[in-house]
Design goal:
446 residues, mainly alpha, Arc Repressor Mutant, subunit A, 3-stranded antiparallel beta sheet, 3 strands, disordered C terminus
Length: 446
């Protein structure tokens, strides 16, 4: 920085400091709103972050949180500084990055840490549970949420809300197949919970399950297994110590058992997988006695195991029961319901009930495309529908489906991922069939 540039910089910084001091004297809450915004994503601050999120704080901001008149006065005073601007059509606020920088430079290191923690508390308060119906709001808040998770990781913030926010944001990224972005957030959530709560706390088990499930979907089975096993051990020990919230722990135990079953099934270790699924089912049916999404998912997974072992007559009623529960538990367009619809279609194909196959596979694909976009689950549906078209020798329909499925999977996973191998093998088989003489293919159709 040249002397002239430094002089200009110092002059601007002085002007900012004077303006903030004036605002502080006129309306302390307005000054605090500006300080808070300095630690959020500059170009996109949804207004609900400030209006609702400050309810999690104390001090001046807590005082205006439930007072519409005081809130209005504070936010208007903040706008007068021109540090903060409002877009009424999108209901977002913006603060230029350079303004954020000057505001931060006016704080000591300790003050910066305090305001970074406040930003985390605010975001944790407004970031919703990662239910499918909340995905649009999760996406709207994502930039500011990721800014706050960056604060947690870079500044090593240790507070109760930190692992909660990290886990929720990571879960959303996980659901949207942004696995590389989710992983460091899960890892940091686990590290903070271990530091704050000890390595055997049930909340640690939740973080272990989260991280293991990420490794699982990425095909890193050897890395996921010990984390799943450790999570299960923690929960089972906690259940033996007469916990105050046993149902919560039973749900976690069922989740861990189901996940371990799925991990073994993914490796075609069917006999090892079966007892995990059966124990999970026992907890859900006999202990919790709830017909909900967790039960539907476990039934679907156990049915898939029986299908893989050729036990079609056992698998079919399980899939059908799972579908009934899904239909009661979630909306028709929920992506989770598509897994059972897809699997039931595949089972009918194996059972020779071809007339039932195509409608189910197409329904599953339509739900997934609408909900997920270019996602690995969409790729799996494309592969399955392509397999159906290949089986009826409609190669022209099958080929672009395989190609799109492979493209999605290669954009998402490493090259040796099991899903990529499966889809590429199926596609290469199609190409070999297409090279056979037309007469022979036509003869088979008759």
């Amino acid at each position: 920085m040249t002397k002239k540039t430094k002089k200009q910089h110092d002059s601007v910084a002085s002007d900012f400091a004077i303006s903030l001091t004036d605002t502080e004297q006129t309306n302390p809450a307005a000054a605090d709103l500006l300080r808070l915004c300095a630690f959020l994503y500059p170009e996109n601050i949804p207004e609900e972050i400030l209006k609702e999120g400050i309810k999690a704080l104390d001090g001046h901001l807590k005082q205006i949180a439930d007072d519409p008149e005081a809130w209005g006065e504070a936010i208007q005073e903040a706008y007068k500084t021109q540090f903060l601007r409002y877009n009424p059509n999108r209901k977002i606020m913006t603060m230029n990055y350079s303004i954020q920088t000057f505001l931060k430079q006016g704080m000591s290191g300790a003050e910066q840490r305090i305001w970074a923690e406040k930003a985390v508390q605010v975001m944790n308060h407004v970031f919703p549970d990662v239910e499918f119906s909340n995905w649009p709001q999760c996406q709207r808040l994502l930039r500011c949420a990721k800014t706050c998770t960056d604060h947690i990781i870079q500044s090593q913030l240790i507070l109760k809300e930190a692992p909660e926010l990290l886990s929720e944001v990571a879960c959303y990224l996980h659901e949207r197949a942004q696995y590389a972005q989710a992983r460091p957030l899960y890892e940091q959530a686990l590290a903070i919970r271990e530091q704050m709560l000890g390595k055997t706390h049930p909340e640690v088990a939740e973080s272990l399950n989260d991280l293991a499930s990420l490794y699982h979907i990425m095909g890193k089975y050897t890395q996921g297994k010990p984390l799943y096993e450790r999570a299960l051990d923690i929960v089972e020990v906690a259940l033996n110590n007469e916990p105050s919230e046993p149902d919560k722990l039973h749900k976690r135990r069922a989740t861990s058992l189901n996940n371990l079953g799925s991990l073994h099934k993914a490796q075609k270790l069917y006999e090892e997988a079966k007892p995990y699924y059966k124990k999970a089912l026992e907890v859900l049916e006999n202990v919790l006695k709830e017909e909900n999404a967790n039960l539907a998912a476990t039934l679907n997974n156990l049915a898939g195991l029986y299908e893989a072992q050729g036990e079609y007559q056992i698998a079919k009623p399980m899939y059908e029961r799972a579908l009934e529960i899904w239909n009661e538990a979630v909306e028709d367009d929920h992506p989770n319901i598509s897994a059972t619809i897809n699997n039931l279609g595949g089972l009918y194909k194996l059972m020779g009930e071809d007339e039932k196959v195509q409608p189910l596979l197409e329904q599953a694909l339509a739900i997934r495309e609408q909900a997920l976009g270019d996602h690995p689950d969409v790729a799996i549906s494309l592969n399955n529908l392509a397999e159906f078209y290949k089986s009826i020798e409609d190669y022209a329909q099958a080929k672009p489906m395989y190609e799109r499925a492979i493209k999605i999977l290669k954009q998402t996973f490493e090259s040796k991922h099991p899903h990529i191998n499966m889809c590429v093998n199926n596609y290469e088989h199609l190409l070999s069939l297409m090279k056979k003489p037309q007469k022979r293919r036509s003869k088979r159709r008759k």
